[in-house]
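Sample 3 of the quickstart, ligand 3-hydroxy-3-methylglutaryl-coenzyme A:
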Amino acid sequence: MSYPEQVKIVEVGPRDGLQNESVTVPAETKVALVEKLADAGLSVIEAGAFVSPKWVPQMATSGEVFVQIQKRSGVSYPMLVPNLKGLELAHAVGVREIALFAAATETFSQKNTNCSIEQSIDRFGLVIGRAQDLGIKVRGYVSCVLGCPYEGDVSSDTVLMITQKLFDRGCYEVSLGDTIGVGTAGQAQALVELLARHVPVRQLAAHFHDTYGQALANIHAVMQCGIAVVDSSIAGLGGCPYAKGATGNVATEDVVYMLHGMGIETGVDMDGLLEAGRFISEFLRREPVSRAATALLRKKAG
Ligand code: HMG
Ligand code: MG
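Result:
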């Protein structure tokens, strides 16, 4: 079995995590979290979203957050954007990278972005074209790749079609979202094997929510197919406001613990992650949803 020697972690906690919190997290707390994540050595930190504040009020301060982050060389701070308006708002504050998102089922597409799959593909065309004119890099997401909260099973061919379109239009990387964390290792592997026959597997990322506790097993499985980019969320924060019951992304601490244990480099420092996780968990008044973080913090406390 072969695994990548290095894995790039894309930290999505400040966006995917905090978008789903019922507590309002002030901009300065989000900024402090992003700084701590950068201190831990993370090189990609999704710091917020320029989406409609009527749809996701938790992300309304994203412009303020982005402006206040002390940008470090070698670290990118992508922001989630659904449309041209989001791109213009992002550009106005100097964002250099955005992430677009589309869903693999019609119902999820309507619930999350108020448009059909086809309309969302037309939208990305416009957004990517404008982003390219502005010199802004674009990452893509496909949601519900292993299951949909409204439609159940999802067609792998639809996932492939959207993934191909995202690459054709100019995304440099496409992240595969198991939005509700229902997939299991065999399904995840079969999907990535199919996609790898048509698109560059090294430009795919695994974005697995951990609702059913399958995310680490699924990451382990898809690394065997060549995936070397993993999205995760500090302290396992998060969920999706349009996927009821879906819990957070796999915890960054758990992913890093597994990868370092396998001798795979990430450039991330576990103590730095523990500090970032402690900081946000204390703010939210809860324990980190990370088995590795909980065990390591207990061990440190003696
Ligand atoms: P709509 O209501 O059809 O949009 O929503 P609209 O164009 O008719 O605009 C409605 C209002 O929103 C207008 O304001 C616009 O100006 C404003 P009003 O005139 O009523 O005062 N507006 C905006 N404001 C700020 N930023 C914008 C923006 N766009 C419009 N960009 C829309 C369509 C796409 C805007 C809406 O559905 C939306 O914002 N959806 C985002 C939903 C979301 O953020 N979901 C969570 C993120 S996706 C996710 O978590 C999955 C992922 O993690 C991967 C995975 O796990 O699978 C990525
Ligand atoms: Mg997500």
